[in-house]
Amino acid sequence: MKLYTRRRLINGFNLGMSLLTMLFGLFWLAWILITLFQQGFAALDWQVLTESTPPPGGSGGLANAIVGSAIMTALGIAVGGPIGILAGTYLAEYGRGSKLAQFIRFINDILLSAPSIIVGLFVFGTVVLMMGSFSGLSGGLALGIIALPVVVRTTENMLGLVPVRLREAAAALGAPAWMVIVCICYRAALPGLVTGVLLAIARISGETAPLLFTALNNQFWSTDLNTAMANLPVTIYQFAMSPYDDWRELAWAGALLITMTVLLISIIARVFLRQRGGR
After folding, report:
1. Which residues contact 231 (CB under 8 A, 6 or more apart)?
2. For the packed helices 63-89 and 190-204, what is the interaxial angle rounded to 10 degrees?
3. What is the CA radius of gyration of the chain?
4. How would DSSP label each residue in 82-121?
5. pTM of this structure
6. 173-210 pLDDT tens trace
7. Taking the CB of residue 35, how many other CB atoms lie within 10 A of it?
């Protein structure tokens, strides 16, 4: 067999296996999404969005869990967003090639790939035990730690895409370094920075494991950050494992709400990235 023919056969075999593997993965993804949409839309109604979680056999919804998740996600972004942007700015603008920057990148890579349950255990040992109770505050801190490396990585990458000639032009006009970063680099990389924050929101909005060790859950309406707070991921986990049909239906509705939220955030992030690429 000629060498060219053998290469074409090998290339065709690899291409065929790649297509089969892709179709295998897409089949299970479509199956999961179809099941989720069928079960979720069947259980989703106005009552789910306006009433608190019910006792077994009672009527109710997921309003307190939705509000609790929104509060802790906002707290997580408020903690991880600014710190991540500042850390990413240091890595991109000040720490290029330094050993400290290399060390920060190494720690950031570990946080980026660390299981979220480890973050939950860390916050449990440092915050929950010190406060003496589960709380929405500790849940928000855990989500902030998970969001932090996503924002750091995105900020560094987006600032790295800003052309050097823009910095040089601003510096030639006498602008100090901080003004160049704030007025030139941040403005040029703004869609990318917003995308990083949106991706971090999508990353933490469905986390269950860290909230089991920090915020736990609450069947009642509570916006007090010092007490256990209801949230969608833990509520879905508990309701899906229960023997009650009404709870399992609410779990499907909650899973659909999280999926739609993450999908909407991902679409918004893609729109911002497209705007960034069009510049």
Report:
1. 65, 68, 69, 72, 139, 211, 215, 217
2. 140
3. 23
4. HHHHHHHHIIIII-TT-HHHHHHHHHHHHHHHS-HHHHHH
5. 0.88
6. 888 888 999 999 998 888 889 888 988 998 898 888 89
7. 11
